[in-house]
């Protein structure tokens, strides 16, 4: 996997779009952030910040990119953007629908300067549909997609905000996939194209285990196979007050867990559909897990019994496993895959606002002094 030689113009801000283009940068693409001269990406100054005063969110998803400061509301800078686009392979924009039309940098206008461009729009609800004009943030998209309803144990509880912005991250992942797939399609002779991606669509897509049930009814929280219906797929409190997860869906893993937990008497309870038997099994598991600390349960049953300790975010980034994998390095979480044994990574520097304006414009044949 090597996108060296691919240039991506990044018109996105905050998290979903920059995460998408960070993945492309880690894969080797030359990602150019096109930012407004007055403020740039809002995440630059959002707290918390690094010791250097850079927003940690910005630092996390803008490594190795170059920044050009352009005021796209002016004719001269819009022309400069067209010059950059003429030599680019992809454009990713994250404005609300209609904004790139007003700015004059939509797909149709860019294609006049580069007919093979891959152009990806990433918005909350997409460019079409009844919700297209709505503004929103992650929990709005999760609510619209039916995901937030499943974050509680039962309907008596208030839906809970997930620990991470699921729609934002899933949308960023899908946008990166869509760009890479479109670039491949272009290389196969199909030309460039326009991709309309949506954070709400992405949230609905990753909800397949719930969606498949919804076509036959209305799955309720806490009553589906992966949201608390099964005692053998749940979270339990350990002796030390920490928590462990048990995910022994398959009989062979349940048998391994029962052996490691010294509870062979529970083997036959797996798969029961009787509500009374399930609750009795859950009670047995609660009392069993309460006998030992979480770390001990993971040592005893983690290898083949489908048990994992619930770590804090700090525990996770400090874990030897993720550092050995290379996904955690240099104070950042990087590309989540190894390619030929190595972890792809962009440069570690984070660009200042407009830091590369001069060099990028000169590369595009534009004299910076003429602006």
The averaged pLDDT comes out at 96
Please give the domain count: 2
CATH first level of the largest domain = Alpha Beta
Q: Give the name of the CATH superfamily of the largest domain.
A: Crotonobetainyl-coa:carnitine coa-transferase, domain 1
Give the helix proportion (percent range): 25-40%
The helix/strand class is: alpha/beta
Strand arrangement, largest sheet?
3-2-1-4-5-6
- Unreliable parts: none
What pattern of helices and strands is seen along the backbone? Answer: EHEHEHEHHEHHEHHEEHHHEHHEEH
Descriptive notes:
It contains 15 helices and eleven strands. With 371 residues, it is of the alpha/beta class. It has two domains: 7-206 and 338-370, Crotonobetainyl-coa:carnitine coa-transferase, domain 1 (Rossmann fold, 3-Layer(aba) Sandwich), CATH 3.40.50; 233-318, formyl-coa transferase, domain 3 (2-Layer Sandwich). Helix 6 packs across helix 8 and helix 7 packs across helix 8. It is elongated, with a radius of gyration of 24 Å.
Strand and helix layout:
Layout: E1 7-11, H1 16-26, E2 30-35, H2 56-61, E3 66-69, H3 75-86, E4 90-93, H4 99-103, H5 107-111, E5 118-123, H6 138-144, H7 166-190, E6 193-198, H8 199-205, H9 208-214, E7 233-237, E8 243-247, H10 251-260, H11 275-289, H12 294-301, E9 307-309, H13 313-318, H14 320-325, E10 328-329, E11 332-333, H15 357-363
Parallel strand pairs: 1-2, 1-4, 2-3, 4-5, 5-6
Antiparallel strand pairs: 7-8, 8-9, 10-11
Helix pairs in contact: 1-7, 6-8, 7-8
Supply database-style keywords:
single chain; 371 residues; alpha/beta; Rossmann fold; formyl-coa transferase, domain 3; 2 domains; six-stranded parallel sheet; three-stranded antiparallel sheet; 15 helices; 11 strands
